[in-house]
Here is the input.
Amino acid sequence: MKYFAGEYDVAVIGAGHAGIEAALAAARLGCHTAVFTINLDAVGNCPCNPSIGGTAKGHLVREIDALGGEMGKTADECFLQSRMLNRGKGPAVHSLRAQIDRRKYSDTMKHKLELQDNLELRQAEITDINKTDGGYELTTQMLAVYRCKTVIIATGTFLGGRIYVGEVSYDSGPDGMFPATKLAESLKALGLPLRRFKTGTPARILRRSIDFSDLEVQKGDDPPQPFSYETESLGENKVDCHISWTNDDTKQVILKNIHRSPLYAGKIEGVGPRYCPSFEDKIMRFKDKPRHQLFIEPCGENTEEMYLQGMSSSLPEEVQLQFYQTIKGLEHCVMMRPAYAIEYDCVDPTAMDPTLEFKEIPGLYGAGQFNGSSGYEEAAAQGFVAGVNAALKVKGEEPLILTRANSYIGTLIDDLVTKGANEPYRMMTSRSEYRLVLRQDNADERLTPTGYKLGLISEERYQRFLQKQEIKKKEIARLKAVTLSPSDELNDILVSRETAPLTTGVREYTLLKRPQADYELIRRFDPEAPNLPQSITEQIEVEIKYEGYIKKQLKQVEQVKKTEEKRLPQNVDYTQITGLRLEAQEKLNKIRPLNIGQAGRISGVSPADISVLLIWLAANREKDSYGNQSNT
Amino acid sequence: MKNQTIAAVSTAQGEGGIGVIRISGEEAVSVADRVFRSVSGKALCELKGYSAAYGAVYFEDEKLDEAIALVFRAPHSYTGENVVELSCHGGLYVTRQVLRAVLAAGASPAQAGEFTKRAFLNGKLDLTEAESVMDIISAKSKSAVRSALCVREGALRKRVDAVKEDLLKLTANLSAWADYPEEDIAEVDDEMIITVCENAAQTLEKLLNTYDGGQAVKQGIDTVIAGRPNVGKSTLMNLLSGSEKSIVTDIPGTTRDIVEDIVTAGSVILRLSDTAGLRDTEDAVEKIGVDRAKKRLAQCGLLLAVFDNSQPLTDEDTELINAAAEVPTIAVINKNDLSAKLNINKIKSGINNIVYVSAATGEGKEALIEAIEKIAGTNRLNPSEGILANERQRSNVENALKSVTEAKDAVMSGMTYDAVTVSLEDALAELMEMTGEKVSDEVVDRIFHNFCVGK
Here is the structure.
């Protein structure tokens, strides 16, 4: 028999990376919040790689942290090894990645949720969701009924999860968890456009069974850098990773058994990501490639499980073992968990606004893999935004919309809700047009004022941030004022770096503009130069060296901002606007962009359509047809 | 919203006696001052609204044409912004050169219907006109798309595509290399980037040169209007060019020389020669004209063979029908308004395309243009070199060139590749604007297509 079990402002379904950030943000904003998870031991689980960050994903983690989210701090607390990727390729693409202890990460996150005021963490499968007058009613499989003003769906791969390993397949969540089998039906009944996506993970191998003697070692940075602006230092790296390669034997095993892959046998209908192909996909699609690289990464300090990055597969268990054992170092490997593919239900994200609220279903939000993305970091980023917006809605305040111009988070969400996702969406630096502005080093500058205004950044941290900005500003002014005179020693260094020696005195600022000069050099020849932390000098250097590019991108940002200030009403029927092309009418009716800027990014909407919209807007402004509430 | 300053030819191209280049936007007057020098020596910025100055338009110290500049001050102008209108002598070539100078001085090419759009947004047009403005924009952009489509299959598209492909490949490689640092993706080095940039720059420069040199115009179809004297050739030419260029009288043989004009017939550019008649003559001066006409006829890309509907065929007409076998020809049966005495079957036996017009009344002009466009679609008349169709495309190519040069310079000065990629993407964005694609989608697609990346 159903029983009434409680009432909340915000209910979060799922306690993965999206659910965690959503719940913490909502609770910290003062909302009475509940988080439901099918298994309490799976809170913040990392069912795939035991690492956080990476290219563009590292940017996301920094941004979440700058806004007052939790992922960066917890990753720092559980770090095993950390590396700044892409050093030497330029500041826009520097990305931090940390190997983490996945059990510790899960425990730490769970404990943080447990300790959080306003937050209740519960083990329960939500089987039913119903719209009521004041919000929603959630029913668990135990028939408990919860009333909530807003609901955030963050079901990850649990929703309708089905695992495939060769000819074997069964309903399951990730890592042997129960799947959520009933919720999808009730979401469909609410009118959500659901579809099937697919992803996969490689096997876990027993460390003692690997021969590391001939494998290349990959060490962490010295010193390793933290994600969080609040973490002072990480201490030493605790583990090494190793690199090995596949060979022709590996390929032959795959080719011989490819008909046993559920994907190639046509059993999986879900759309898988191109950037995260199974190993058999790699072999089939890039037949000429003689070998593929793989990384052997430890899953934690207190486990012998090793993750084989690059070796995801949905071939039968015995074929997996067979091809793993062709790889150098893995000849006698013992497989502890097989690789698998998992298919799950997710939503067409164009049904949402950039607030991550469903356009047609007020108070209902989506985040993470459920929205068609992939990756822990992408999930956490959306979770944060959905959590904040659900809370703001409950409090009757203006929603938070991050933009392409201020963050990768904004770019991620704009891509999802404007262009949709035809495959699980992964963040990449190539997806941002403002890469030199959206760097991982200046996430605080871009977003901490927003986090502070929301109330998620403490006064103390905010003051520290302001102080840092002040120091930076002062130092740049100083560099512009102070002249460095030529000396033999300085010129020798310049020549050795293949740049012209000085003939006359030059402003330190001007010298720093040269790609070959760095702040270290200034400090060496100018005793007056202050001894600033590397995080600040690095930023100063970047801002001076890339000034031209940054200015250009900021100008583009300004132009786009203007188009985003021109809001479009949400209740308009675009087929009634003469002059719009048919394709544009259809797309606009589907996406319902919030403003002209977003409309312009929809594929199939041409510059001429935008002109028509501008005229229409101007004509309508007089008639005053604004009658929407979500467009504030 | 503070707008960019825009410019475009505001008279129909290739038609009309004068060409007006309209510049609109906050910087309109200073842009105009950069290309216009008045006889009085007074700069346009010293002029009040609603005033005019006589002078000439210059491009890099080269005088392009004499012109009258009309200055309008915001909000008292068509668009409600500062506006300068430069009225020149007209002609497709000169008008384009002047526009070019204006764009080089800092204006951007106007989009379809943009003047009207601004006029509306600045409150210069009545609210009730909104719908018609929307229709105008939509119609203009459709015709712009159509003209872009003409280019789509042609040589220009091929050349632009080749550059785009190289840049896309390089950009995807750089992006994959940055986004997948741990995959064994081929390293990109300075030399690779420089080579691609230099090749791209070379092609883009060549494209610009064909445009700059006016070859785009001159490479229009070399068209000869031929027919026996007084058949109506000059009137036909005037009909196509829309102005009185050659002397028209009723005395046979008044056209003594080949007169050239460049006109647009629909989407096709014609380099028009109005020839002297083909008749045998004793008159020495006239004979020179006739010889030139014959020579010209043999070399032309399109022959408009004119016949008089009101007269029976003569030997000279027959000679023309025979000559028509050698070149793509349209038989233009003139004086359609008079009663027919012409043996049309004889003409049909030699010439496939037949159009009836009355050059004097203008009747049949559309049918003629249609026939010309149809013939221009055949391979024989397709210019082998890519041609930039309009200033918008030219400006796209020029900006792309600027960006690849910037990318190359950045590499040479030791800038990191993330900055270089920004310039490469800018170049791609310009080239893709010509075909309506979007850069980031294409690059991401390419990464997954070309590289084996992932966990």
